[in-house]
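Input chain follows. Return structure tokens only.
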Amino acid sequence: MHFERVAEGYAAARPPYPAELWRDVLATGLVAPGRRALDLGAGSGQATGELLRYGMDVVAVEPGRRLADIIEDRFPSAVVVRSKAEDIRPGEATFDLVVAATSIHWMNVDVLLPIIHRSLKPEGRLLIWRNVFGDGAAEVTPFRREVQRIVAARPASGAVDHESIDTTTRALRGSRLFRVEKTHLFRWTVDLTTEQVRALFGTFSNWTPDEADAAASAVAALGGSVTESYTSWLIEASPV
């Protein structure tokens, strides 16, 4: 529940998903007035708000009380369900779209995917996407070298790379419930000030406050602003 503890900062600091990602979401033809969407692990409502803007009826599932409050305050037309995604029991074939935006890596997909499969209409789609805060193909900037130095000082964890599109794609295919129709990768940049870096890195679940302060100090030493290269990915999957 790290994000619950930093709910207001999370809502303010996280950058939006790139326009190119939303272009490809819209290209599914399923984002339209009157259609129904289920947003799993909705956080502060980034995806919920955009889907509502296009006229969809949205059910936002979020276990964090403070984050759910933010969604209700920002988007009163959304139906907010305060629950873990694995605990919901939606009706059968009731949603045109199920989305998990930078959230599925926190969920038990073995439990969740059968629930999603039952909830989708036959022509519906499961869309999974996330922002990855870094771009391994981009030039390593002085700031990124400082980030690498901070991360290298941690004890080795041996954790699975849940930010990888391959990890999620394998889980979908392994379930035998979904066919992966398309995958998309987007590269983008954002300019961040010292305080924006402190706020943003403070929302990362694997960063301590001291580490976020160290990243912010690196920005200050570099003139108070840096250009960060990030990536996003999107998976489109259909029920089988």
